[in-house]
Design a protein that fits this description.
Radius of gyration: 22 Å
Shape: globular
Strand order of the largest sheet: 2-1-3-4-5
Strand content: 5-15%
Number of strands: 5
Helix content: 40-55%
Largest sheet: 5 strands, parallel
Distance between the termini: 53 Å
Structural class: alpha/beta
Length: 283
């Protein structure tokens, strides 16, 4: 009669077999938090990499964008970059989210600024920091305040929420990281600097609120604050990570292509501000 092997030894051997199967990819398992084999980037010009150049297509995607930088990081594989300059939450839903599928395990989204026409307000304020700027900022602040205090009655908030819910539905196993926007100016850098930064803080608060509601306590949708990483590197600092007005170029003059990238991150901004913040959240 053959003696039975001790139970602990059999468990240890079984554990070793299962570990070997897992390494070989033969066991069914959920996506690991340490590795993402199918990463898709969605969003607007801040996701595409506008400001860093050079550009690879009409969407102003750059190889210095944060999706490309994340792809270069160990354990993240970029399989789709649908980000495009000018995208709103509506165009993300219509033209970018269809690129997702059930195999996608990581999604980043940067969107909402174009719904608010943030750049439009910045252009107005760069030309005139007086009444026109005050009115432009007040109109957008009112939209954001409604989104914060009455999200159910805010089209702006509901558009953000619908976009994130669509991402969840199209890529149900994905971890979703929703980024905010950097504060563009150093405090006190100009007459409109602090009010514009305040507007960005409100916008970020709305995006964070939408991310929390979309998540619903599942720990699958996370807001990523990039403003802290950009601190000390706004326009007006010694080492800005935001593209400002070119030298000898006033806001009222025609500066051609020089003005296309203003108020967008530089290559350093995408690398040290966006990519670093997202990578820290993912880790």
């Amino acid at each position: 009669m053959t003696a039975k092997k001790p139970l602990p030894r059999r468990i240890a051997r079984l554990t070793g077999v299962l570990a070997a199967l897992a390494i070989a990819g033969l066991t069914a398992a959920p996506a690991s938090a340490d590795r993402f084999d199918s990463y898709v980037a969605l969003g607007d010009s801040y996701a595409a990499g506008q400001g860093a150049g050079p550009y690879t297509d009409a969407c102003l995607r750059s190889n210095h964008s944060y999706p490309v930088l994340l792809d270069a990081a160990r354990k993240i594989g970029l399989t789709g970059n649908a980000a495009c300059s000018g995208a709103t939450t509506g165009t993300v839903r219509a033209t970018q989210i269809p690129s997702l599928n059930r195999k996608v395990d990581l999604v980043t989204v940067t969107a909402g600024g174009n719904d608010l026409d943030s750049i439009g307000a910045l252009v107005i304020c760069s030309k005139d920091s007086g009444a026109a700027c005050t009115a432009a900022l007040a109109q957008r602040a009112s939209v954001l305040q409604t989104a914060l205090t009455n999200p159910a009655g805010s089209p702006f908030f509901q558009d953000l929420l619908a976009m994130l819910n669509d991402v969840k539905a199209k890529a149900p196993r994905a971890d979703i990281y929703v980024t905010g926007y950097p504060l563009l100016f150093e405090p006190g850098a100009g007459p409109a600097a602090d009010p514009i930064n305040g507007l960005t803080q409100q916008l970020n608060a709305v995006i964070a609120k939408a991310a929390r509601q979309a998540d619903g306590g599942r720990a699958k949708v996370e807001y990523v604050d990039v403003a802290r990483a950009f601190s000390g590197h706004g326009i007006g600092s010694e080492q800005p990570w935001i593209v400002g007005l070119p030298p000898l170029c006033t806001a009222s003059s025609t500066c051609g292509s020089q003005t296309a990238d203003i108020f967008h991150p530089t290559a350093d901004g995408y690398a040290k501000g966006y990519a670093t913040s997202i990578r820290a959240a993912v880790d």
